[in-house]
Fold each of these.
Amino acid sequence: MNAQPPLEAILRWYLDAGVDEAIGETPIDRYASAPPTPPPAPAERPAAPRFAPTPEPVAAAPVESSAHAAFAATSLAELRAVVESFEGCPLKLTARSTVFGAGAVNARLMVVGEAPGEEEDRQGLPFVGPSGKLLDRMLDSIGLSRERDVHIANVLPWRPPANRTPTPAEVGQCLPFIERHIELIDPAMLLVLGGAAAQALLGKSDSIGRLRGRWLAYSSTRLPRPIPALATYHPAFLLRTPAMKRDVWKDFLMLRKRLEQKN
C-alpha cells in the first residue's frame, strides 16, 4: 500500500492552487446552519375589476335612404326640404350649396344636366354659369324662355369637387331625387344634356354621340305614361368644342317640332 503524502506536501499543493487563507479553525457546515428557504408563495390571481358590464355596442341608426325620402315627397317644396336635409351623400360635405332646380313648375319641357358647376354651386341655382348662358341662347333660338316654359335641374344636386366625374355610387344615391323631381313636374318632354345624365336617366350605356339625334323614352312606374326624351351634348362641351353646335342645332329643331305638334 502506498504511503500517504506528508502534510507539508499537501499544504504546498494548496498554496500552489491559490488556497492561502483559512476561514476559521473550526469547520462549519454552512448548509446545515442556513435557515431553510421558504417555498415561493403562489402568485395571487388579480381580483376581477369592479366595473359594470360593458354594454353591447349599439349600431348607429342607418341614414334614411334617398329613395324612401324622395318618393315620400308630395310637392316640390317637400322634395327640396328632403334634398337639403339629406346626409347620405359625401358630395354634400364638399359643396357650398344644394342646387335643387329652377324655372316654371308647370313646364312642358324639363331640362336635366349632370351636376352643378362652380358658379352654380356659388349661387345655388342650376345652369347660371357660362354653360347656362349658352343654354339660355339655345332655348331662345326655338322660342323658349327659362322662366316661362322650362324647368331646369341636375341629376346631382351637389357639385363634385373640382368638377370631377361623379362616381356610380354618388349617382345612385342622388338618382331618386331627380326621378321624383321629374314625376312632380310631369313634363310633356325631357331634354337630357350630356352623356352621364342620359345614361343615368335613360338606362343607356351608349355614348352621347350615339344617343343624340333620336327620340328615346323616360319611364317610371309612378308616371301615367313614358315621357319622350331627347339627349344631346352638354353646353359645357359645346364651349370646348364649338364645331358640335351644328349637331345640337339639329336636335333643337327636332325638339321644337315635337313641341309644336303637342300644342
Note: The mean pLDDT is 86.
Amino acid sequence: MTLQKNFWATNLKTLRNRRKLSQDLLAEQLGMTRSKYNAQENGQTVNPTVEDLFKISDFYRISVDNLLRTDISILSDGQLSEIEKGNTAYQKGEQLRVLAISTDKNNRENLEYVPIKARAGYLAGHNDPEFIASLPKFSLPQLPSGNTFRMFPTTGDSMLPIPEKSDIIARFVRDWKHLKPQTLCIVILRGEQDFVFKQVTQQGKEFLLESLNKTYHPYTVPISDVLELWQFHSYQTQILPEPFTETQDLSRSLKTLQADIRVLLERAQK
C-alpha cells in the first residue's frame, strides 16, 4: 500500500504560528470550539469533516490539497505567498517536496531500501508512489516512532571512517531551518544522477557539503537544488574493523593515564 504523507495537523500549527494567533482566537474566527480545533492541530482528528477542510482552506486561502499534502513548515514566506496567490506551479507541487511512503498491512511505514541499481532512478521517482512501492522494503526494531526512514547504499571513500559500501539508515528531514551545522545527511540533489552522503551546514541560501575524509574538498550547493535531506541514524556494513595496532593501543593507554592524572589533580586542589 502506498500513500502520500499527510501534513494536515503540522500545517495547522505552522500557519497559526505564522499569523501569531492563539488557538482560542483562531477557533472563534473559524466558528468552532477550541477543543475541536485543538484535536485537529494535535493530530487526534484522523478524518476532518469536509466542512472543516473548506473552512480552514478559505481562511488561509490555501487549497485543501496543499493543506493535506504539502509540508508548509519548510516553505519560505515567498513560497507560501505564491500558494496563497493561487500559483498553479506551487499548487501542483512542482517546486515542493512531497514525500511518498509505503505502509504494511497494519498501516505502519516500511523502511524502503534504495539499491545501487535504483540510485539513478531515485531522482525522478523519489516522490512517485509507484516507484517507492517498487523498492525493496523491510522493518527494523527500535527505530524511533513518528519518523520516516529510508536506507541508502554508499560508494567511494569520501566518508571514511564509515566503510565504503555501507548501507546508511537515515531519517527524513522535514524542517531544514533547524538543521544543526555539520549534520550527516544523504542529500538528494536536483540535476544529479546520484545522491551524496555529506556533512551539511546551512549558509544563507546555500548548503555547505563536507566529507568526513578530509582529503575531499568541501563545496556548496544552492538550497533550491536540494530535493530531499535524510539525516544519518545508523549504518550497516559487512566490513570488519581492523584490529588495533600497537601504536593505537599505546595512544589509548596514554589518554587513559592523562585522564587519571587530571582526576588526581582536581582532587588535590579541593
Note: DSSP finds ten helices and eleven strands in the chain.
Amino acid sequence: MPARATDLPAFERFCAALRLDSGRALVLEPFQRAMLRDYFAGVRETLILLSKKNGKTTILAALALWHLLVTDDAECVIGATSRDQAGILFDQATGFVRRSPGLQTRLLVRRGYREIRSRRDSGRIRVLAADVDTADGIIPTLALMDELHRAASAGLYGIFRDGLGPRAGQMVAISVAGEHELSPLGEMRAAARRLASLRRRGRYVYARSEDGGFAMHEWALEAGDDYHDMRVVKQVNPASWQTAEELQQRHDSPSMLEWQWQRFACGLWVSAEHRWMDPEQWHAAASEERLQRGDRIALGFDGSRLDDATALVACRVEDGLVQVLALWEAPRTEKGQRELEWEVPREEVDAAVAEANEEYRVVRGYFDPPLWQSEIDGWAREFGETAVMRFATNRRRFQGATERFRTDVASGELPHAQDERLSAHVLNAHVHNTRGGYWLAKARPSSPDKIDAAVAAILAYEARADALAEQQPEPSRELLTF
C-alpha cells in the first residue's frame, strides 16, 4: 500500500539511526521533509529538481532501505541511464547497511547481484540497467530514478511508472537541471509548471496535479538572476552545509566551468557549450500568424544530402515572421539497429523551391551552397539571381547574422509561426567558441539532433534585412550640407 503521511516522523527517526561516512547521524533537514512529504502522503510520482551536493541521492538511499523494512515483499527498483549511475544510489544504501549493525541482522547485501534482500520475506532492492528491455514486466512497490537529466528517452521512466498500478507502487525521480528543455525531463518539467496548482516561494517552485498523482519540487534560479552572487545562489542550495563560503569556494575553483556552475549549482538549463537561444524568449516569440499567398518573403535554405536534414524557411518582409516551408529529416532508428543510408529526396526539394516562388513574391533568398551547388545554380537560372543567392556561411558573416537573429527574438522584433520542428532545431543549436568568434553547431558532432531549420531561419531573416536595407532611399546631399 502507498506510504502514509503518518510515516514521515517514523522515517525521520529511522534516518537518525543511520550513520554517514563521517560517522554522524543522518538528520533530515526542512527542505528534505518538504520534498518527501508528497511521497508520504501517497502521491504516485514525485519529481525533485535540485542542485548537486544537497543530499538528494543519500536521502533516496535511506528511503529505499526504509521501504524494504516496512513493506511486505517489497520490490524496490533503482534505475538510471547507466548501471554505474544507478549503482551510486545502491552503494549509498549498502554503506548505510555496513555502518549499521542493526540493519545487517535484517538485510542481506548481495553486491554481485546488486541487490539488498530482506531476511524476513522476499523483499528486495535491486539495480536495473538502462536498457528498457530488461525492465519490461516489473511491478515495483517503489521505483527510484537518479539523474533523470541524462535520459535520452522517457523509456525507462515510462516502464517504471506503468508498472506501479498492480501493487499501488510509488515513484521518486531526482535530477539536476538538464541541458535541453525539449529533452524528456525538460518536457516533464514544462508540463508540471503548467499545472493549475503551482506555488512559488523565492526560487522554490512546487507543483501538484489536481488528482494528487504527481508532484514536482524544483529549486532553480531564473533568467536574469546574478549567478555569481552567492547570496542568490544559496536560495537554490537549501542544505545547511551549502554555505555562502562553501559555494564561493566551488565557484572559484579553476576546474569549475561556467556551464557546470550554472547547471549543477544554480539549476539553470544550459548545455556544455554556451546556450545560443533562451528557450523562454523563443517560446514567447511564437505567433498564431501564418504566411498568406502573395506575401513578400525572403528565403533561407540549408541542408545536407545524406542522413541529416534539409530545410527551406521563409521570412515575411513586412513583419519578420519566420515560418518553415519544407523540412526533410533522416528518420531516427531504434537503438542497436544498423542505420540505413537516407538521402534527401531531390525532387521534393525542387518542388518546394518552385512552390515557394509561385505562392509568394520572393524578394531575396540566401542558400547555403556547399552540398547543393548544382541545384542552386539551376534554381537561380529558373527563378532569378536575386531570389536564389549563394550565402557562404563563413564564420564572420554567419556570426553577425546569428547574433542579429538572437537579439531580435529577445527584443520581441522577430515573431515565428509556432512549429515544433523549428523550435526543436533552434533549441538544439549550440554556440561553439572558436578562435575567430563562435559557431552555431550541434552539441556534439555525433548527435542525432538536427539544427538545419535554425540555420535556414537565420539565412531567411538575414536575406530580409539586406533586402530592406537596399530599399532605403539614399540620403539627400542637401541634408548632408551644414
Note: The first helix runs from residue 7 to 17.
Amino acid sequence: MWGQMTVPVNLILGFLAVLARVSGAFLFVPLPGMKQAPAIARIVLSLSVATVVWVARPGTLATHEFAIGEPVALILSEAALGISIGVAVALLGECLSLAAQMIGLQAGFSYASTIDPTSDADSGVLLVFSQLVSWWLLFATGFEAYVIRAFARSFELYPPGGFAVQGAAVEAVLRLGSVVLAAAFRLALPILAMLVLVDVTFALLARVNAHLQLLSLAFPVKLLASIALLAMLAGAFPKVYGDAAAQAASTISRIAGAGREGR
C-alpha cells in the first residue's frame, strides 16, 4: 500500500512534519491571550502557519517504503525541534517572573493581587508587572524577529524529516535554564539582602526595647524599601535580560542550526 501511494503519502507526511514542528513551538511560546483563546483558534493558527511554510518551501520526504512506526518517529522528532525552540523562548520569559516571585513573597507584594492578562487568574501585582516588562523587553531587544528568522532557517537546514533529536540540543536547553535561574537571582538578591537587613534591624530594636510595637511598622517599611530599590535597579534589568536573551539566542541557534554558517 505504501509503495502504490508513494507521492501522496510523502506529501501528507511532509506537511504533518511541518505542522508538528510549528505546533510544538506554539505549545510553549507564551503568546499573550493564547491560553484563553478557543482551541479551534489555536488549531487554525498552527494550520495557517504550517500551510504558509509548506507553500513557501514545498517538497516531499524521501520516496521509500516506510517501516512500521517510522512515520510516528518522524513526527515526534519534528515536534521535538519545535518544542525545544518554544521552551527556550518560554524560559527567557520566566527570567523576570522568577525574580518577581522571590521579591514579592519576602516584601509582601503577594498580598496585593490583580488579574493576570495571560491567564485571567489572580496573581501578585509584582508578578503581573514583571510579565508585562518581560514582553516589552523581548520586543525592545528584537528577540522575536530573531526567533522567527531562526525558525524559518531551521526549515532550510533541516527539511521535513531531516532533524534528529540529539543530546547537544537537550543539553543546550538545560544550560539555558541554569542561565535564566542565575539571571533571576542576580535581579532579586540585592533586594532580598536589603529585606534581610530590615528584618535584622527590627529584631535588634525589639530586643533592645520589647515595648516598641515594631511589627506594624515592618510591613510598610519593607514595601517602601523594596519599591525604592526596584526603582534604583530598574536600569540594570535590561542589561541582565539582554544577557539572558543572548544566551537564549545562542541556544536556539544551536537547536535550529541557525548559526551553522558562522561556525
Note: The longest strand covers residues 113-115.
